[in-house]
Design goal:
This protein is α+β, with helices and mostly antiparallel strands. It has a single domain, classed as Alpha-Beta Complex (Aspartate Aminotransferase, domain 1). The protein is about 25% helix and about 25% strand. It is built from 3 helices and 4 strands, in the order H-H-H-E-E-E-E. Strands 1-2-3-4 form a 4-stranded antiparallel β-sheet.
Amino acid sequence: MLYETIKPKRSKMQKIYSVEEYIEVNSHYTKELTILRHIINSTELNESVKWRMPTYSLNGKNILGIGAFKNHFCIWFHQGVFFKGCTKCAN
């Protein structure tokens, strides 16, 4: 059982139940995540937490998500290759 004594312990990812909690846990990017969230919530997208990260959907389809990591924060588009734009963007 030598392997068991030297194998590294995995850190368990914390379960996140709300976007507010996600931002609180990632406090090193509170300002940036709050700004992104405010902009996104001014649209018709629905906010939820999926895969332990804020995710935004429309008509049941995931559109985008925001995230925070050790050295960066991000916004990503689900299936962004199919994004055709929108008439309300950049207004």
